[in-house]
Fold:
Amino acid sequence: MRLDSIRSPSHFLRQRAGPISCESVLKDYEGWWEREGRAISATVDRAGTPWVRMFDAAGRRVDEILYPADYRRMLLEGYRAGVIWRAFKENSLLPSLSLLYVTSFYDCGVTCPYGVSLSTAVPLSKCGAPAVRERFLPKLLREDEEVWQGATWMTEIKGGSDLGAGVETTAVPDGGAWRLTGDKYFSSNAGAELAVVAARPKGAPPGVRGLALFLVPRRRENGELNYTIRRLKDKIATRSVPTGEVELRASEGYLLGGPEEGIYLILEVLNISRVANSFGSVALAQRAIADAAQYAETRVAFGRPVIEHPMLQRQFEERIENLRAAFALAWEAGFLLNEVWRERRPYSDRYHLFRLVAHLAKYWTAEFAVQTAKWCMEVHGGVGVLEEFGAERLLREAMILAIWEGTAHRQLLDALEVIERKQAHRLLLRHLESGEPIPELRELAAAIDAHLKLPPEQREREWEPLGARLASSVAGALSLREQASSKSTR
Amino acid sequence: MRLDSIRSPSHFLRQRAGPISCESVLKDYEGWWEREGRAISATVDRAGTPWVRMFDAAGRRVDEILYPADYRRMLLEGYRAGVIWRAFKENSLLPSLSLLYVTSFYDCGVTCPYGVSLSTAVPLSKCGAPAVRERFLPKLLREDEEVWQGATWMTEIKGGSDLGAGVETTAVPDGGAWRLTGDKYFSSNAGAELAVVAARPKGAPPGVRGLALFLVPRRRENGELNYTIRRLKDKIATRSVPTGEVELRASEGYLLGGPEEGIYLILEVLNISRVANSFGSVALAQRAIADAAQYAETRVAFGRPVIEHPMLQRQFEERIENLRAAFALAWEAGFLLNEVWRERRPYSDRYHLFRLVAHLAKYWTAEFAVQTAKWCMEVHGGVGVLEEFGAERLLREAMILAIWEGTAHRQLLDALEVIERKQAHRLLLRHLESGEPIPELRELAAAIDAHLKLPPEQREREWEPLGARLASSVAGALSLREQASSKSTR
Amino acid sequence: MRLDSIRSPSHFLRQRAGPISCESVLKDYEGWWEREGRAISATVDRAGTPWVRMFDAAGRRVDEILYPADYRRMLLEGYRAGVIWRAFKENSLLPSLSLLYVTSFYDCGVTCPYGVSLSTAVPLSKCGAPAVRERFLPKLLREDEEVWQGATWMTEIKGGSDLGAGVETTAVPDGGAWRLTGDKYFSSNAGAELAVVAARPKGAPPGVRGLALFLVPRRRENGELNYTIRRLKDKIATRSVPTGEVELRASEGYLLGGPEEGIYLILEVLNISRVANSFGSVALAQRAIADAAQYAETRVAFGRPVIEHPMLQRQFEERIENLRAAFALAWEAGFLLNEVWRERRPYSDRYHLFRLVAHLAKYWTAEFAVQTAKWCMEVHGGVGVLEEFGAERLLREAMILAIWEGTAHRQLLDALEVIERKQAHRLLLRHLESGEPIPELRELAAAIDAHLKLPPEQREREWEPLGARLASSVAGALSLREQASSKSTR
Amino acid sequence: MRLDSIRSPSHFLRQRAGPISCESVLKDYEGWWEREGRAISATVDRAGTPWVRMFDAAGRRVDEILYPADYRRMLLEGYRAGVIWRAFKENSLLPSLSLLYVTSFYDCGVTCPYGVSLSTAVPLSKCGAPAVRERFLPKLLREDEEVWQGATWMTEIKGGSDLGAGVETTAVPDGGAWRLTGDKYFSSNAGAELAVVAARPKGAPPGVRGLALFLVPRRRENGELNYTIRRLKDKIATRSVPTGEVELRASEGYLLGGPEEGIYLILEVLNISRVANSFGSVALAQRAIADAAQYAETRVAFGRPVIEHPMLQRQFEERIENLRAAFALAWEAGFLLNEVWRERRPYSDRYHLFRLVAHLAKYWTAEFAVQTAKWCMEVHGGVGVLEEFGAERLLREAMILAIWEGTAHRQLLDALEVIERKQAHRLLLRHLESGEPIPELRELAAAIDAHLKLPPEQREREWEPLGARLASSVAGALSLREQASSKSTR
Structure:
């Protein structure tokens, strides 16, 4: 069993994805995590939820997020390495996604601020009015410690899956800007200097069609706080990102895109987050395998290291094979995103293809991350359930990856929708075959065609096994293709 | 969907297992948990690992386990209800196991002290010298708050799966008693008044054959502490049971059974714990389904409670069906245990059949508990990863159920061993068919026969899928049988 | 040294205060604390700040205060014993204050909800409109677990000493009731069913004269929450009372007394709290001496228990003597309060005398409590700074007693004010002498007369040593009187 | 009021102590604390007691102390600046003590490892056998991150004041070295690479005369752990230093000095710690005044910042005056220590003078630190009791300064002893007068002479007020002298 490449995220990445532009940056970045980041990340997790200082001693509302001392150093490391600015300087998301991959191997929580900052910068750069873009975008793209962070706040108390019914935040025009009022219930990266926020302009129709996307800075033009943080949430993991409840009270906001574009921009934002989540999930699974291997090499039973026990050996081999497939799926989602991220409506078929792959990737990689983290704990045996040794942390982190940005349930239904509306499974088939037919996928596409003829309730009810098979088959096919291509090129 | 019976563990138990002797006791006991126990259990989990007061202010070593105030009340409730004494008074383990089931629905951690107390009382009653039995057994069987607790301490720092190599605790004879010296690394219910402890008598052969089982009380005959607690472990869950590292230093011990009986008694002890664990796992899964249902009934999306969404509805139905199968498997393990728990060597075929079923049950039910707890979190969406709402606790608890008393890996290999040595799969086939052949099981038995012809390394390496299929098929067959019988009798 | 009476608060109370009406109630109440309350109190302190559940899983705002399971049992014990209802049923505050004394020996934090509930019931009974009184007062006076709790919320973000400038909460009339809007920054007993709240009616003059006192229930007439809790505060102690930030948003309120009576009623409310605080401080000091004695009796150095070391022995004797004086001062404040608590303006001289004594008592007893708790830690030596043994808790609690309801600084200045305006030192002299002149006090009164002739800034600047001497001398004189009377009667 | 110098420890130090050799080092060091150290210190306090990893995942005993990530950086900052090595390179303790002063302004806990490292290096350099000194001393004096830490472990479970009875650790010779066995109950800086340890050589007489001082490294010559850490203690403060229970089990040790020198060396070690503690106490008091001022400048009441309120203004002035006196006393202790630290028996009168001043300084400065920290909390009002704002931390830290290295009680009695045996009060009188008689001190010396004629029990019993007066008068006289000298030189 060749485990070496498993121990290094940048190594694995290079091996699977082929040559990438910022290879030495990734290596340096990984080196920093090994030297310093690992310990900081452990401190942050152990310290639990960060806390928020609402008032200073003089009684002024300040809403500062307080962290263990080292935290800011950890956070800045990725911004400096280019997790945001490279996307714009190099005009490609792949370096960013590669940096997210390495980040997630060490701390999935930090991936979130990076991901949402990217999801803020992208629509701002595409749809912000020129004055707004010039004012804010350079802050997000700074390469030093003055860099601003972004955030994406959609969900309210009624839940995030049905945004049309759930968003009750309203926006009223005020001069060239808008005033937003409402409460956001799951606000990742609370405290960010800039957030994209879903709200309903006064007079807009109900449902998702009436939503618009706004840019909301932390401070008003006059320097006052522009939103307050009601509280941070005690999450079981990803403690490196503060998730809070944010109160908007006549907060200054700037419309992104046209008012009727709102829901499309919201979905574009979520798509970026989902791809980032997929990279995070695969990296976490790689980490879990690496940690399991390290433990299994030292623990001896029945006269040999347990990693040499036949049943466990087979499990390692299967995990690694599945890791490759999961990686191939996530990478494909990133690759396609990189082709379409600058598109605006009407979208190309490539965009619909991307959407399907993104849903499958979010779903499948998160599931794989959870199962692999669980297995890693089991490999550790009793030691696996002790807070002391860290094996249990991966499962906590993985559960969050599986839930935020939409659970399996949601990804599957959204995948079904893009299949129904855009025949995206057919697009996918063509994309994968590239000339040569793949019988397994053909058969699957036919099964999906048949499934689409079922009455709607039944179609939804019975979709899960078929959707799972689709994700798994696509991942497998991509992995095969990648192995073929890597054999041919090396 | 009929969810009513899912909400009540005693109701579900009666429905699945048929009439049980202590029905009203179970109901009262469940009532207490609903009124008071739930809140206490939440306090204990939230308070984290209990702490140990090593010294009193005057500097005397005391090793008291300290808990939130209400804890002792919660613990006593089950002892009073009869989780130990009923087994001996009613000469049946089924009331005890039923009480464990209800307990685990509310707090899996408390199930552990009950389970290990039972695992202490049983070998003491069977193999203790008369004077030892008379001195200690009545303490364990008290029905009031003076009741003693038991504990089973086998594992040392080198791990628990390979006891032959891992147990370094030694015992030397001292008058009629023994003196034990060594360190136990995972000692559940540390602080118990009485423990059964694996140790190697001076001069005994190496390996598992040289181990013996001893009874070790908390206090010496002269009243001094007989063991010390080096520290408690920070486990991620089951905080209602203190798990610690125990130091034996010339600790008074009493041999149970003959010296050559040691490893057999140790395995008997573990078998009881595994059955208790299986009951706990199924109860936890039931709880997870009940909690998921409660949430899904109140959360609305797209105009209706999410429990009415077709995909989720199907998931509930499948979970409940699998719950029934898992219950049938655990119950069968308990039923068989109840037939053989008084056996001594040489064991009957019934005993070997039991062993196989116990391994399959431990393995399969724990896996089901973990997956169901994970799914329950996903049903809760974002709320599922907040410490505030408790959904995440079930997954933490389930992970411990999956790991302690032996991981999946271990159960599968032990099942394979009893199949290899005793042809236990054939015993199981006969047991299940009771006249009428079940083709699926026949086919499976043949596959196992073929598997047994593989060379040893390969046999072990490729056993997992076959073992999983065996567990699943047996659970399914038992569930069918039970449904048939319940249809015929009601 | 006679330490026996120090170990029991009810015993000490009876010995110092003479026969009290509810002696057996006090004994039973103390018995409960010894049996159960001590452990619960330790759990609550160890668990840290209680937490608030803002939303239920379905997303409804609920603002429930969550505690360790046993907490409610502890809290109810005092309500049932009569800490509120006895004041009205027996038409005397002395039983209530005696119960507060015993409570504070065991848990100073619980004294707060009792004290503020009393401070709510008293103005409601005196000045509530009949319909309001009939609607709410019986809830506060219930003798069972349905009892409502009160609260007194004055302080806002700008601080509590200068209420005239600090209260920015406004009230506007709405039908027969009022609507209050504002934020209360230190709200003890947040979550109470009923609070008295300082606010400024629309149009009222600035400064303290424009304040009015309102009754604000937790729920509106239509059942909705009438105020929300922004967050609870992490206090270093008194964790048995939740202190939070309360948001009033058009909250229903009921005016107590006439609008011009506001500031007087507010001060009456604070006076009750200050007397309660004085009883709490003395009881805490008694507890600290009792704990120090218990430790010093067991710890041996240089061949004898340290309590027999001459220097320590002398410290114990002095502490106990000072405890008696502090008790006498607190008791006098309570005794006078009991004479004037039903007064309304214009106040009698007796009332002004009471005010002076109350300020001196709050100041002096809290200082004594802090110094005694500090000393108790020192008696414990190294053990005193470990969280494990509880000695450090008393100092944390005492520091809160010294600060809330106004620091030493504030008490001294308020005492000076009542002396300046009402010649209250002369009233006090007459009150204490009762015929026979006390030279020390005469001299002191003359010094105060001289002090009053200083220019205002200097008068304030140099008042502290004189004020301290006054408090100390009065306490000493009262203690002497009490010892004389107890000698004569026993 | 001139508060500027109060805000900077190095500034205050220079102003009070006059020119010091390492002025720019102190300034840089202070700068680091302002930029980075403050935040790290807050993290460490908030994180609570550090934890100890007893075993690694492979089951090897490792006893690593685990801290928030930044901790080690904070700790190294002082070692690098020269808190240990400068004492030997510059042949003066004053730079070390000055660095300790600045350290303590920011984090009293870190002062402890520095102080005990110094207390380890000094006896090693004076009395270590050449081979031992050469092997270990250079490690303690390194100027880089490889520096070793020292520790001083005397106290056992029976307490630290009566070492003659309390030390039960034994030492037996083993080749050129010794083997120590016993349990140390309050072991500051547990985990240190090198400790000085009190133990009784086999066959030595009982009582303090039979004690000897040993050097005990963390690792044996063969690389194995030489002591284990049973657990760390949950202290209320000084969380930057791990205090634990240390188990010596045939641990390698090296005798320092001759066997009959033991108790003298132990006292020399403690004397260094007491002087360090005195510097720490004064620095903490300075910090408390600085924090109180900062708060009182921003908090407004009755129309002006509360720092301008006359009573508070007077309190600030008095605190600052007392701070100067406390500083003068601590500095004098340091100055004298610097004269005598290389002395060996028989000691000079200068040494006895030093001992008296050291006891008075430890006692008086700690008391002042506690009272000032308490007052600082009161100045903060309600904000002072919230964990959020840090005011409460100073009191926790101060209480530890008051207790460890001997409580007030112990310092007073030890001062009395050196007065009784060596007429040290007369030495002190001569030292202070330097030509010109100080009537207050003369009178005090006479009172002490009279006191010495009392019978022993009474002498001890009534010593406290006289001892307090002595400390206060000496501090006052030193402060006057210093002011005179600073006036004359500037």
User: Anything to note?
Assistant: The interface with chain B takes residues 54-55, 59, 157-159, 185, 230-231 of chain D (CB under 8 Å).
